[in-house]
Amino acid sequence: MRNTIGGLGEFALITRVTSQFPMTDDVILGPGDDAAVVAAPDGRTVATTDLLVEGRHFRREWSTAGDVGHRAVAQNFADVAAMGARPTALLIGFAAPADLPVSWAEEFTAGVRDECAVSGGTVVGGDMVGSDTLTIAVTALGDLQGRAPVRRDGARPGDVVAYTGHLGLSAAGLALLERGVDGPAECLSEHRRPSPPYARGAEAALLGATAMLDVSDGLAQDLGHVCRASGVRVDLESEALRPEPSLLEAVRVLGAGPGRAERVARDLMVAGGEDHALAAAFPPDTVLPDHWHRVGTVVEAAHGTAGKSGNPVTVDGHPPGGTGWDHFR
Amino acid sequence: MRNTIGGLGEFALITRVTSQFPMTDDVILGPGDDAAVVAAPDGRTVATTDLLVEGRHFRREWSTAGDVGHRAVAQNFADVAAMGARPTALLIGFAAPADLPVSWAEEFTAGVRDECAVSGGTVVGGDMVGSDTLTIAVTALGDLQGRAPVRRDGARPGDVVAYTGHLGLSAAGLALLERGVDGPAECLSEHRRPSPPYARGAEAALLGATAMLDVSDGLAQDLGHVCRASGVRVDLESEALRPEPSLLEAVRVLGAGPGRAERVARDLMVAGGEDHALAAAFPPDTVLPDHWHRVGTVVEAAHGTAGKSGNPVTVDGHPPGGTGWDHFR
């Protein structure tokens, strides 16, 4: 039973795992003590946490352990980037059944390590416990490098709405997997291993972004948070929502007829979650680099509707075709 | 179904929960954005994480939701205190079945809030997801206030070993619950709601502690970590291990005969976990306040044994009577 984590034992596994992570300049004290000590050079720390539960957020049949490790890092450091901060450190809680193969834990760790290398952060601590449900808890820390955090409540009427990264690919990849259909590798890979544009969070802050967030539940649903926090509406322009070729190919493979593929792809861009693009509002005169795609405008909230029910995000003035999802329903 | 968290929905529950927490001076940006921003006045952040899994770390039959909330805070801020730091902020991940009563989540939150008030920290962020297994992930942050962190690797031969807080009461409380026996309220309450001496972590740092940790798995097992990290041994003195009256009463209720009660109580002090006392090594000439109980001495590691298997902690020169436990075995 040495090939299960129950057989190997908690301490042996922790030792194997923690030896994988480089001590970056942000790490004052790494794993192995009661707590880690992380540098916070400007006197502030950005902090966010997420849980990934098997069967809800990933499936071992569809994602390798490495994919899950990548994703655990990506979705948390995307939140750090969405504040305009630089990813620094992670703490990872790992709850697993005793019969989980050691190889799964090791491949998960390799995925975490590889995505950390992309993001610039590293693992400084964690916890490992038994559970009937494989559950991964990630807390990510970040450094604002002296800048003000880019919150959700600063968008103003007239601001340009833009995103960077991918939109819709992860949802298309999930649909392909659910239907057991082969399709474009970009969509499958974006579902398994989203690639948030980490460094563009700080870039957006430097460009003067008035509001920003990580697109995890779908562009329309997530921009709704910006609208409610800022007391505005957002109107997206369908002409500006330009699907990537792989997304168009995926919706065709999934059965959208020739006349409908573009529209279905746009719906996935608006409603599909988990790509971890960054979406932001910028003052109207901002000169945006090409990798920021302008997709809409911030408009004044209709009198008396701000903060009420109903999605304050429209497409060409109409409610979007699809919505995101509530984890409990 | 509005009385279950599935019926109420994720966003409504998050709103109810986050409104409970005061924004202390440490909170630059609280819940509701992609990430929180926490003050780190001396340019460093202490960070630690723990998972609590139903059936492994708590049982809904034995602990109220409030107890679990208290414990989730206590065990994490105890780790922060064990670095010599002041507790500042928590992030809480909450994974629960859809049929969990809303009242459980609310009482859990009240427990978290009350223990936060004791510790001085507050909740700045979190995540809420569905899961078949009720699981709570807590990350705690702290402020070293300009002091060096008290690590595990600084104990030197000749140092005095002392603890503050309680030892053995939680284990006795657990034994009472497991056997369905009524017993001293102090032990039951310490199991349900451990009361770590948070402020004494910073005190120990100011007193010059050379090593310190939170006693979570048992004094002997945890001091073993200090020994291995510091390359020393620790000899505890049974005469110095003075059980609290409630602990003695509990072991009598549990069946220890008149001649054995003291010895069983000492074994529980040495092997019992989850009281979250602080144990530390101090230079021999340190004048300790009365609430630090001297229980042993740091001695030189026998040649070639440091870091090897076998517990480097002895009682009167002999191996201790019991041991802690490995979560997976």
UniProtKB/TrEMBL annotation, chains A, B:
<dbReference type="GO" id="GO:0005524">
    <property type="term" value="F:ATP binding"/>
</dbReference>
<feature type="binding site">
    <location>
        <position position="49"/>
    </location>
    <ligand>
        <name>Mg(2+) 1</name>
    </ligand>
</feature>
<keyword id="KW-0784">Thiamine biosynthesis</keyword>
<feature type="binding site">
    <location>
        <position position="217"/>
    </location>
    <ligand>
        <name>Mg(2+) 5</name>
    </ligand>
</feature>
<feature type="region of interest" description="Disordered">
    <location>
        <begin position="304"/>
        <end position="329"/>
    </location>
</feature>
<dbReference type="Pfam" id="PF02769">
    <property type="entry name" value="AIRS_C"/>
</dbReference>
<keyword id="KW-0067">ATP-binding</keyword>
<feature type="binding site">
    <location>
        <position position="57"/>
    </location>
    <ligand>
        <name>substrate</name>
    </ligand>
</feature>
<feature type="binding site">
    <location>
        <position position="34"/>
    </location>
    <ligand>
        <name>Mg(2+) 4</name>
    </ligand>
</feature>
<feature type="binding site">
    <location>
        <position position="127"/>
    </location>
    <ligand>
        <name>Mg(2+) 1</name>
    </ligand>
</feature>
<feature type="binding site">
    <location>
        <position position="34"/>
    </location>
    <ligand>
        <name>Mg(2+) 3</name>
    </ligand>
</feature>
<dbReference type="InterPro" id="IPR010918">
    <property type="entry name" value="PurM-like_C_dom"/>
</dbReference>
<feature type="domain" description="PurM-like N-terminal">
    <location>
        <begin position="32"/>
        <end position="142"/>
    </location>
</feature>
<feature type="binding site">
    <location>
        <begin position="126"/>
        <end position="127"/>
    </location>
    <ligand>
        <name>ATP</name>
    </ligand>
</feature>
<comment type="function">
    <text>Catalyzes the ATP-dependent phosphorylation of thiamine-monophosphate (TMP) to form thiamine-pyrophosphate (TPP), the active form of vitamin B1.</text>
</comment>
<dbReference type="Pfam" id="PF00586">
    <property type="entry name" value="AIRS"/>
</dbReference>
<dbReference type="InterPro" id="IPR036921">
    <property type="entry name" value="PurM-like_N_sf"/>
</dbReference>
<keyword id="KW-0460">Magnesium</keyword>
<feature type="binding site">
    <location>
        <position position="152"/>
    </location>
    <ligand>
        <name>ATP</name>
    </ligand>
</feature>
<feature type="binding site">
    <location>
        <position position="79"/>
    </location>
    <ligand>
        <name>Mg(2+) 3</name>
    </ligand>
</feature>
<feature type="compositionally biased region" description="Gly residues">
    <location>
        <begin position="319"/>
        <end position="329"/>
    </location>
</feature>
<dbReference type="InterPro" id="IPR006283">
    <property type="entry name" value="ThiL-like"/>
</dbReference>
<feature type="binding site">
    <location>
        <position position="274"/>
    </location>
    <ligand>
        <name>substrate</name>
    </ligand>
</feature>
<feature type="binding site">
    <location>
        <position position="50"/>
    </location>
    <ligand>
        <name>Mg(2+) 2</name>
    </ligand>
</feature>
<feature type="binding site">
    <location>
        <position position="50"/>
    </location>
    <ligand>
        <name>Mg(2+) 1</name>
    </ligand>
</feature>
<dbReference type="InterPro" id="IPR016188">
    <property type="entry name" value="PurM-like_N"/>
</dbReference>
<dbReference type="GO" id="GO:0009030">
    <property type="term" value="F:thiamine-phosphate kinase activity"/>
</dbReference>
<keyword id="KW-0808">Transferase</keyword>
<feature type="binding site">
    <location>
        <position position="325"/>
    </location>
    <ligand>
        <name>substrate</name>
    </ligand>
</feature>
<dbReference type="InterPro" id="IPR036676">
    <property type="entry name" value="PurM-like_C_sf"/>
</dbReference>
<comment type="pathway">
    <text>Cofactor biosynthesis; thiamine diphosphate biosynthesis; thiamine diphosphate from thiamine phosphate: step 1/1.</text>
</comment>
<keyword id="KW-0479">Metal-binding</keyword>
<dbReference type="GO" id="GO:0000287">
    <property type="term" value="F:magnesium ion binding"/>
</dbReference>
<dbReference type="GO" id="GO:0009228">
    <property type="term" value="P:thiamine biosynthetic process"/>
</dbReference>
<keyword id="KW-0418">Kinase</keyword>
<comment type="similarity">
    <text>Belongs to the thiamine-monophosphate kinase family.</text>
</comment>
<feature type="binding site">
    <location>
        <position position="216"/>
    </location>
    <ligand>
        <name>ATP</name>
    </ligand>
</feature>
<feature type="binding site">
    <location>
        <position position="79"/>
    </location>
    <ligand>
        <name>Mg(2+) 4</name>
    </ligand>
</feature>
<feature type="domain" description="PurM-like C-terminal">
    <location>
        <begin position="156"/>
        <end position="304"/>
    </location>
</feature>
<protein>
    <recommendedName>
        <fullName>Thiamine-monophosphate kinase</fullName>
        <ecNumber>2.7.4.16</ecNumber>
    </recommendedName>
</protein>
<dbReference type="GO" id="GO:0009229">
    <property type="term" value="P:thiamine diphosphate biosynthetic process"/>
</dbReference>
<keyword id="KW-0547">Nucleotide-binding</keyword>
